[in-house]
Amino acid sequence: MSPHQRRLMPSSLAICCLIPIYNQWISEKPLWIMLLESSPELDRRFLKPNSFRKNAMHNLLLSLTLLLTLTLSGCGYNTLQSTDEQIKAGWSEVLNQYQRRADLVPNLVNVVKGFAAQEKDVLLGVTNARSKVGSIQATPELINNPEAFARFQSAQGELSGALSRLLVVAENYPQLKSDANFRELQAQLEGTENRITVARNRYIKAVQEYNVVVRSFPSNLTAMVFGFQVKPGFTVENEKEISSAPKVDFSTPSPAK
Q1: Cα 117 to chain centroid, rounded
Q2: Whether the Cβ atoms of residue 93 and residue 205 lie closer than 8 Å to each other
Q3: Which among 76, 81, 95, 202 is most buried, taking Cβ atoms within 10 Å?
Q4: Spatial separation of the C-alpha atoms in residues 134 and 113, rounded to whole Å
Q5: Closest CA to 93 of 195, 189, 187, 191
Q6: Is the pTM higher than 0.70?
Q7: Structure confidence at residue 187 (pLDDT)
Q8: For the domain bounded by 104-243, which CATH number is listed?
Q9: 33-72: burial string, b at 16+ Cβ within 10 Å, e else
Q10: Per-residue confidence (pLDDT) for residue 227, from 0 to 100
Q11: Domain range summary for the chain, segments of one domain joined by +
Q12: What residue ranges of the chain have pLDDT lower than 50?
């Protein structure tokens, strides 16, 4: 649902709710109208059906629309809006950090290839995993599509696994580990992995808070009316990976004494 449609929803909902109320109201003549009709000295202009009912309907709609707007916050609308914005901000940061990691992969592969060209399978695995990540269009709307979100998550998991295997191979090449370019990539990759973990944890927390509101009464009714749906989170299978950043350590081991 677009922001423009959401702005129109309170008025539309108010009209839908008020029509049956108004129909019942005009079908039963209130006491004060009976008093007006029994008093000849009162101005009969107010009793003309068209003008009177038109003015009454207008005032009633204004009053109840205002009341409905004020009570929306009590039904969770404001909370839904704020938590939805937190999810969007959190997901945007997750995408940014994943992209930073993907940008490091070509340089990392090239450096490793210069010292360990024979590790073709490992290098090819990293390259293919990065290509798979790049083939998925990572957009803010991804979190609104559980299937696409799962594919994106799976691709990122494959890249994490491929990078881990590459780092294990790097341990077998002392010259590679002591290379200045490789050590610079160490610092960048380690920092990126840490930022990915922080961003994912923030996203998870925002999704949990939002989904609780979407599923709870009476805010679940508000969510249904305004089109707020449950957002996907990271799967249980990756819970351990999400809770802690992958260990990235290219430091040269201390010589044995």
Answers
A1: 42
A2: no
A3: 76
A4: 21
A5: 195
A6: no
A7: 83
A8: 1.20.1440.20
A9: eeeeeeeeeeeeeeeeeeeeeeeeeeeebeebbeebeeeb
A10: 87
A11: 104-243
A12: 2-5, 7-28, 31-32, 46, 70, 236, 238-257
